[in-house]
């Protein structure tokens, strides 16, 4: 097996240590020659890198090289894979994305509604620049992107790099949900075969099979309706906010029993309830800053001080393992099935070809080979078309610097609807994002 050279972009991320543990857990499936870290924030990256050095020395002694840098050439030269996980504007801008809409009684969320739009407008230029830079130094590398909002990023990259078939956008949510399904069914996530369709953070599982072809969908629905639904993956299992979110799946299945929903649909189907449960002065961004971010900083500091991992608890999570398994399937033509974000081109036959859809695909060394979904029923089609139009308008607005298109996008979004409210939120977001967004005409 050829050993791979990997660069992690945005290596100061709160998810990097989990990714490193996942690379260690998956080293038989995805053996590495080298890992390089790249970030624009030297200090943030250095802490994670120094802790990673200690972890790798203990758990991955056969790795030939580990380095970290803020120099693009050094980072991107001669790599086989780039995993991207940047957050333009950091968690402090996420806080504004959430608080501004909430102050108008509208959903304030990282990737959904106005917050997602604001974040998208910040992510697009950085992502375009990064792809160009990676391509300058490594023409053939696989670029796997986790950067959010994945739907909007994927649409922008599709437009700018139409011929680049080695960029793949991924979301960990379907996998995190499948970890909970697997637990209910007494199986491993890798034993399950999903059927799924939608947009990123806007989709449904239509079937869950095991590898023998047994249909487990009804068993899952009944379990969720009778016994509830909880997050099981280590990263989110004990998080109050995620526990509430998974609980909402029960309500969604009661109201719409046909399919098993992605958790993110709660923001579109119950926007009022989502607003009511939020504290507009202490949102998810605050929880993450006081929770995951602090936890990771303390973890890294302890490892660096001890020069050992004996006093910390480290675990691979589904976020990391999913990305690594997709990479392995691309590298070694495993032909495993993963839910990924690809250009529609007839997969969902009653949606436009140029939609970026989230569907299962066989992942080969020639890229993802998505399975046909066919026609989807009117309810889902209607919901998706509205959301798709919003996503397209955001990207249109970005490239045309067009205020009116942004207003159209926000008004179309199910979390907003009301035009005067859309305008107020938009005007506040423009002010908050003046260091990031293009100037709108
Ligand atoms: P974070 O702020 O902790 O880390 C992001 C890192 O990216 C920071 O160290 C920052 O300095 C760096 N960065 C910012 N702009 C950069 C640029 N232009 N080039 C290089 N580095 C840059 O954020 P986080 O909470 O760990 O999340 C990281 C990203 O992963 C976010 O986009 C988040 O939304 C995304 N995410 C996606 C999924 C998914 O399902 N697709 C799941 C989890 C997280
Ligand atoms: C899931 C989604 C990601 C999102 C993350 C936010 O993993 O798939 O797209 O970024 O949740 O989680 P947080 O704990 O930061 O709110
Ligand atoms: Mn996601």
From TrEMBL:
The record marks 110 as: Increases basicity of active site Tyr. One of its GO terms (biological process) is carbohydrate metabolic process. Its cofactor is NAD(+). It comes from the Bacteria. The active site is at 172 (proton donor), 264 (proton acceptor). Substrate binds at residues 94, 148, 284. It is an enzyme of class 3 (hydrolase). Signal peptide: none annotated. Mn(2+) binds at residues 171, 201. The chain crosses the membrane at residues 7-25. Its EC number is 3.2.1.122. CDD domains: GH4_GlvA_pagL_like. InterPro entries: Glyco_hydro_4 (IPR001088), Glyco_hydro_4_C (IPR022616), Lactate_DH/Glyco_Ohase_4_C (IPR015955), NAD(P)-bd_dom_sf (IPR036291). GO terms for molecular function: maltose-6'-phosphate glucosidase activity; metal ion binding; oxidoreductase activity, acting on the CH-OH group of donors, NAD or NADP as acceptor. Keywords: Cobalt, Glycosidase, Hydrolase, Iron, Manganese, Membrane, Metal-binding, NAD, Nickel, Transmembrane, Transmembrane helix. Binds 1 NAD(+) per subunit. Residues 196-416 form the Glycosyl hydrolase family 4 C-terminal domain. PANTHER family: 6-PHOSPHO-BETA-GLUCOSIDASE-RELATED, MALTOSE-6'-PHOSPHATE GLUCOSIDASE. Belongs to the glycosyl hydrolase 4 family. This is Maltose-6'-phosphate glucosidase.
């Amino acid at each position: 097996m050829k050993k791979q050279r990997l660069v992690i972009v945005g290596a100061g991320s709160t998810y990097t240590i989990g990714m490193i543990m996942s690379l260690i857990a998956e080293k038989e499936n995805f053996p590495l020659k080298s890992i390089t870290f790249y970030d624009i924030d030297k200090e943030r990256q250095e802490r994670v890198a120094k802790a990673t050095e200690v972890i790798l020395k203990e758990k991955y002694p056969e790795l030939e090289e580990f380095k970290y840098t803020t120099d693009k050439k050094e980072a991107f030269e001669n790599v086989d894979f780039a995993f991207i996980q940047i957050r333009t504007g950091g968690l402090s801008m996420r806080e504004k994305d959430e608080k501004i809409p909430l102050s108008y009684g509208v959903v304030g969320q990282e990737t959904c509604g106005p917050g997602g739009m604001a974040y998208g407008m910040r992510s697009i230029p950085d992502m375009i620049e990064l792809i160009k830079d990676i391509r300058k130094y490594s023409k053939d590398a696989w670029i796997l992107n986790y950067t959010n909002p994945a739907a909007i990023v994927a649409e922008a990259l599709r437009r700018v790099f139409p011929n680049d078939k080695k960029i793949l956008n991924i979301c960990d949510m379907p996998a995190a949900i499948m970890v909970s399904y697997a637990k209910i069914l007494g199986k491993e996530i890798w034993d399950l075969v999903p059927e799924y369709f939608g947009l990123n953070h806007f989709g449904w599982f239509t079937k869950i099979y095991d590898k023998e072809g047994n249909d487990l969908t009804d068993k899952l629905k009944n379990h969720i309706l009778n016994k509830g639904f909880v997050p099981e993956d280590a990263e989110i299992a004990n998080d109050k906010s995620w526990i509430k979110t998974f609980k909402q799946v029960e309500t969604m299945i009661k109201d719409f029993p046909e399919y098993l929903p992605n958790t993110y649909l709660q923001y579109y189907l119950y926007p009022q309830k989502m607003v009511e449960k939020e504290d507009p002065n202490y949102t998810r961004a605050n929880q993450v800053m006081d929770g995951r971010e602090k936890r990771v900083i303390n973890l890294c500091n302890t490892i660096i001080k001890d020069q050992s991992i004996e006093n910390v608890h480290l675990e691979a999570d589904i976020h990391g393992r999913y990305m690594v398994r997709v990479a392995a399937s691309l590298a070694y033509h495993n032909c495993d099935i993963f839910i990924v974000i690809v250009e529609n081109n007839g997969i969902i036959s009653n949606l436009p070809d140029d939609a970026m859809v989230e569907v299962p695909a066989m992942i080969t060394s020639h890229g993802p080979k998505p399975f046909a979904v066919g026609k989807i029923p009117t309810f889902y089609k209607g919901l998706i078309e509205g959301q798709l139009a919003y996503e397209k308008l955001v990207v249109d607005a970005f490239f045309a610097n067009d205020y009116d298109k942004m207003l159209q996008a926000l008004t179309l979004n199910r979390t907003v609807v009301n035009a005067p409210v859309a305008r107020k939120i938009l005007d506040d977001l423009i002010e908050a994002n003046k260091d990031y967004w293009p100037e709108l005409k």
